[in-house]
Structure formats: structure tokens, C-alpha cells
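Trying the structure run again after the queue cleared.
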Amino acid sequence: MRAPFTAADWAAIYPVGVLTAAALLVLVADLFSSRREQRYGSVGIALLGVAGAAYLAARQFGHNHDAFFGGFIVGGFAAVFQEIILIAAAGSLILYASIGPPQRVAGTTAIMLWSTCGAMLMAGAANLLMIFLGLELLSLGLYALCAASDRRAAREAALKYLILSSTATGFLLFGAALLFGATGSVRLADFVNPAFAVNPLYWTGAGMFLIGLVFKLSLVPFHTWTPDVFEGAPLPVTAFMSVATKAGTLAVFARFIYAALPATIAQDVLLPVWIVAGVSMIVGNVGMLAQTDLKRLLGYSGIAQVGYIIVALAGSTPLGLRYALYYLAAYAFMNLGAFAVAAAISGEAEEGAHLSSYRGLGRRRPWLAAAMTAFLLALAGLPPTAGFLGKILILATAVSNGYPWLAALLIVGTAISLYAYAKVIRAMYERPEGAEPSDVRPFVPLAWLSAGICAVAVIVMAFYPLTPSNILPLAH
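Done. C-alpha cells:
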């Protein structure tokens, strides 16, 4: 009797399998480790698992394979998204080694690895069932991670995220059911038949499916939960959510618009998404202006940053996808670096999340202040950072694809954001009138190392912009 799946099918999910095994090994090792070894042992095993998964995912670049009867497709597109997700996981795990109660690190590390598995499944998902499986695996872990703190705000954030994220999943799932009813298939490759374009079920299903994705991306008007959840969740979890959730959802969104929508109706169906992205760039940047908490500020910033990435995808061109991936990779280093700086000056109460803690940082910790300045300049889109080059590329592709109004909104949003980022930079270097806040922790090697790596990446990417070809998403 012939087995239904080949060795190539199983090889497609080796990176996910390595992460799953690493999470289990973390839990087993925790049973035999002392309290002192818990933190570094758990994080060390997890980082080795991430490194192994990254190696296996990189080997799949350029080798397209349709695994599990069209349910999961590996190749350049999935490999690049998976690498970005793994970067987010590694950066967040390093923060677990720097901050938080050591007795909980093993459990939270394992859950974060399983959530990473969900995001990686979304990167290669090519049918509705695999998309839903990956999304739920990602989300269920995040619900638990948000509540993994003794602070009341953490439990409130977890409950809010659970309720609102479940609503978004409901939209996506009902949209998927309508798409199945209209096409008779769950494979994205079967959705491109132009004959389906006249079916109202297809239009309704595609619209609801996109609403679910827009909700997960925190775009307006489904953005209000983001700053609240970011503020309440533990710092490493916020760092992970800010990148991995966006990367996984953007992978599904890009595959859907590039490989599943008939060309005759694609731009009509997607026009509301482009409008929402334009509004998000303004609303997110305006929302930053009044924030006094770094996590809330970066939550609003993330709303605008996703809007920039969506602008690159407007028109559904191969070049736009390359620029979107470049900016997403740069955004991963910007955000992870900013959270690493926050962890480096935080104690158990996460004092680094308060903007008041950055007053005088340029004198107390000049290297950390320099790194934070690089991250904020990159988020603002100023040279010499990858954020500047990324926005230039996005502006170019938006204008060439016939969306100059989106380019104009991007420029306006960037101008608004300058004040929000500048107030943090000014606080770090100005001489305060009263007493300067003192750093709670004298030196946190891993957080400093993470901030340094991210700062170098943000600068180097501006001079060596890697935008790999061979990344068009396939559905079959």
C-alpha cells in the first residue's frame, strides 16, 4: 500500500518540526534544571531550535514544492517569510533571557516556539484549512503569553486580545466557508477561475476573508485593540507580536492577492484594503503623538508601518512584493532593537516601557541611546537607515503602479510621525531639569548584544538592500 505523502512532503515541514521538538525539549530539560539554570538553559535550547529551523528553511529557497496535496508550498516566498518570523522569535527569546521571572521562562519559551510554528505554517499555507490551522496555532499561544505576568494589565490584555482576535477569526472562517461554497474547493489555486467572479458568494467570501486579515494586521478601523494589548503584554511577547503576527498574516494576504484572486476583479476587491492602508498610515502616526508608554507608541507605530507595507503591495506587482519584504525585514530589526533597548534598562517592573525612563539616557548609556536613535530614525524613515530606503522604494512602486494618492498619504504620515519619534530622541539627549532616572539594571549582556546586532542591521541594510527575486507566491 502506497503512503499518501512522500518524503518531500515531510521535508517541507522540517523547519516547523524542529521548532516543535525544541519546545518539547525545553519542557523536559526544565524538569532537571536548577532555578539558576532555568532561564539560560531554556532560552539556549530554544535559540538552537530557531537556528536549526532557519538553516532548514534557507535550504528550501528556490526549491518550490507543492506538499500535502496543495496544502503547503515551500520555495522562495515561504522561505523569506519564515526567516523573518524566526528572526522575530530569536529576538524575543533573547529578551526572555534578559527580563522576567526565571521560573516561568521554560513554559513561556515553549509556547512562543509553538506560536512561531503557527506563523511559519501561515507562510507556506496554500489552502484554507492550513491557513486556519496556522492562524489558530499562532493565536492560541499568544493568548497565553499575554497573560503570563502577575500584572492585572497583562490579564486584561489577554482577555481583550482573545475576544477581539476571535471575532477576526470568525470573519475569516465565515469568509472561507463562503469561498468554499462558491468554488467547491479549499485550495487557493482553484479560486482564480474568472467564472467565479460573477458569483455573489465569491465576492462576499473574499470580502469577509480580507476583513479577517485586516483585523489581524491591526489596520483601521480594526486597530483599537493593538496599543492596549501591546501595553499589557510582557515585553518579550509584545516584541514577538509586533513582528511575527504581522509577518504570518502578510504572507497569507500576499499569497491570496497574488495567486488566488482572478485578475479581472482583483483590484476592485482590493480597493477597500488600499483605502484602509492609507487611512492607517495617518491614524497610526497621529495616535503616537500623545503616548507616554513605549509599547503603546510602538503599537500605534505598527499600525502605520503595516500601512506602508500594504502600499508596496498595491497593484500586485513582483517588484512591489520584493520591496514589501525588504521593508518588513527592516521593520523586524527596528522593532526588536527598540524592545531590546527597553529590556536593557528595565527591571522586573519593565521600567523601560515608560518614556520617562529615557530622559538623560544619552549620558547614562550613550551606546544604548545611539542604538535607540538609529531605530527611531529608521521607523521615521530618515537616512542613513533601512527605513529611509524602504520608504523610497515603496513610494516609487506606489507611483509607478498608479497609486500616487497612497504615496502622498505615506509622505503625510511620515511627516506626522517625526514629532513622535523626535520627542523620545530629544528626551535622551536633553539635560533634564530635575533628577535623572537611574537604570534599574547596570548591565544586561544579551539585551545589549541584541540591540547592537539590530542597530548594525538597520544601517547595513540601507547600503546593501537585499531584495531577493524568485519570491512570487504560488498556489499550486
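The chain has a mean pLDDT of 84. Worth checking whether this holds up in the mutant runs.
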